[in-house]
Amino acid sequence: MTTLTKAAPPEADEPPAKPPRKRGRLVPYWLLLPGILWLLVFFALPLVYQASTSVQTGSLEEGYKVTWHFATYWDALGDYWPQFLRSVIYAGAATILCLLLGYPLAYLIAFRAGRWRNLILVLVIAPFFTSFLIRTLAWKTILADGGPVVGALNNLHLLDVTNWLGATDGDRVLATPLAVVCGLTYNFLPFMILPLYTSLERIDSRLHEAAGDLYARPSTTFRKVTFPLSMPGVVSGTLLTFIPAAGDYVNADLLGSTDTRMVGNVIQTQFLRILDYPTAAALSFILMAAILFMVTFYIRKSGTEDLV
Amino acid sequence: MEHYEPESLSPAQLSAGRRALRGGSAAVGRRSVLRASAGGVLAAGGLGALSACGIPAAGKGEGGIAADDRSDKDKRVNFSNWTEYMDVDKDERRPTLDAFTKRTGISVKYTEDINDNNEFFGKIKPQLAAGQDTGRDLICVTDWLAARLIRFGWVQKLDPAQLPHAYANLSAQFRSPDWDPGRAYSYPWTGISTVIAYNKKATDGEKITSVSQLMDEPKLKGRVGFLSEMRDSMGMVLLDLGKDPAKFTDDDFDAAVARLQKAVDKKQIRRFTGNDYTADLDKGDLAACVAWAGDIVQLKLSNPDIEFAIPDSGYMTSTDNLLVPNKARHKRNAERLIDYYYEPEPAARLAAYINYVCPVDGVRDALAKIDPKAAANPLIIPDKAMAAKSHAFRSLTPKEEAAYEGKFAKLTGS
């Protein structure tokens, strides 16, 4: 506690014994308490419990005991690596699509929308007033086999391209990887647009004028001014999209087929259907570790650690 | 839980907190607090906590099975059921339940909180395993889950003296399943027939009458659905292979899995579905599928293109069963409710509305008065020819169950 008083800024340099000061010093800790408690009860304890479950063996009849059976991790990874890979690919594709779709829209809202800005923002968020499940089920109608969307795609021979890419199969879209990626993209698009919008909106428009005055073409202005300044939005948007998308199982379940199952589906099946809690827990841990690893790498690479 | 108090935060957390609070940027502070807390938790929770967790064996809950029955003083019963499993009139009231309340003075708190057997098991498991009241007096689950609950000792034996109608009127077909001989613990709410259904428009008028056709017919490629309920799908395939789902071996099961896997591999099968296949079949995205008969009866009313077929090899039958969980507070009221639904008149009203197989004998005349068409429908009241083709899936040991569910999950992609 002595070091604390020594390090105190000059204006706080009063006798530490004075009661109001002492209480004042504790206030920040009391303010932290709800947050720390919340983390402990809803994050740390479940994590410990999950870690424990992942190294247990047994069955529902005989009970589960901790036997430090780490082989569960290897078995889970060996059996389900295709689903892991698929999760990363689908979530990655959805994130890139979200960025490609979301950036122009966020740019429009931030710089060009004028008095329509609030209306467009509401339109971006409005779908979220209905449930995730309903929005996903709506895609079954949109992409129905005989529906206008699939008919148009067939007539334009766009499905031949996606067939060649392995994203669709035959003349349909539902129950293919393309449908799952479409669902993921749609469901997480607002998580991309909103951070992009907030960071674009903060850019001083005089910077654009200055760039113009210095004879930068619009494309150069975008490349050298706008895009670098919007990087915090890009990074947080991609993270907010990629992380939940990688763990999602609803889209793969409703829009996919047997060969589009993601790791979320495997965890659900293991936990609820086969009642193999250790494997489910190990799979969750592997997913968490993989995402943490990728995100750390990504943040380091994009050099925006202080901006997230 | 001593680390709930700020005084006993770990040194790492304290120093991080101090650094954060005394200057330095807020962003760095926030991150280091998080980092320090994570470190602190791992140290505090530690490996000791890891091995202290563990899940006790099921069915060894403390404190006995029955609670004191408050049925006489407290005229209530809490009934958990599936959605769309109770008759509802135009004013959103439930006529048969209201009639029960009027006659007995017992009010029914009816909750539609069962959507999936596996999820519902996950929901009630913690309380039942700990020997606590689930807040439910009557639940309705499918055979295999009922069998599991009975095996764990998580449900109460019913009192036959309270169930005169149920005892007298239960159809012979459902009287003695191998997992509950003589129906000591359970009574069926409905029977479920698993049959083949197809959309005439989507199959160009072709009739689909066998499971082989579902798995092989090139015309149906990518437009065939199977059910995600392992017993229903695998039972139909076993029957198609000429095996009896009531007594098959591991080898038979593996052969059936291999047979279905072939259909999956050549992309014949579009999806393994729960109840959501009805919308796909209605639109024609699924041309043909394995389906539950009750859904098809309802679907046919709005879409005349929907047809069903009973394969010559036979079809699967299961039941959704009423059970009283341990520690239920109103067991006798629950038994009175079960018995009430075995009287022909309420049973007929229920069957006319929900269109599932009625497990009550002597309901045909009562049903004919309300809805003559339903009374003549073999999917609601099976005739002799139909009943002869019905098969049940045998009960599985826990080991078999885990192994079969695992193999089936592999087949469905996860």
Automatic annotation (TrEMBL), chain A:
Domain of life: Bacteria
Keywords, ordered alphabetically: Cell membrane, Membrane, Transmembrane, Transmembrane helix, Transport
Species: Streptomyces lasiicapitis
Stretches with biased composition (Low complexity): 1-10
PANTHER family named in the record: INNER MEMBRANE ABC TRANSPORTER PERMEASE PROTEIN YDCU-RELATED, INNER MEMBRANE ABC TRANSPORTER PERMEASE PROTEIN YDCU-RELATED-RELATED
Domain (ABC transmembrane type-1): residue spans on this chain: 84-298
Stated family: Belongs to the binding-protein-dependent transport system permease family. CysTW subfamily.
InterPro entries reported in the protein's UniProt record: MetI-like, MetI-like_sf
Protein name, per record: ABC transporter permease
Lipid bilayer topology: Multi-pass membrane protein
Transmembrane stretches, start-end: 27-49, 88-111, 118-138, 174-197, 280-299
Positions of the UniProt region annotated as Disordered: 1-21
Subcellular location as annotated: Cell membrane
TrEMBL record, chain B:
Major location category of this protein: periplasm
Protein name: ABC transporter substrate-binding protein
CDD domains named among the record's database cross-references: PBP2_PotD_PotF_like (cd13590)
Residue intervals passing through the bilayer: none
Keyword annotations of the record: Periplasm, Signal, Transport
Keyword Transport: yes
Superkingdom field: Bacteria
Pfam families for the chain: SBP_bac_8
Statement: the UniProt record of this protein carries the keyword Lipid metabolism: no
Organism, as annotated: Streptomyces lasiicapitis
Entries under InterPro entries matching the protein: SBP (IPR006059), Sperm_putr-bd (IPR001188)
Compartments where found: Periplasm
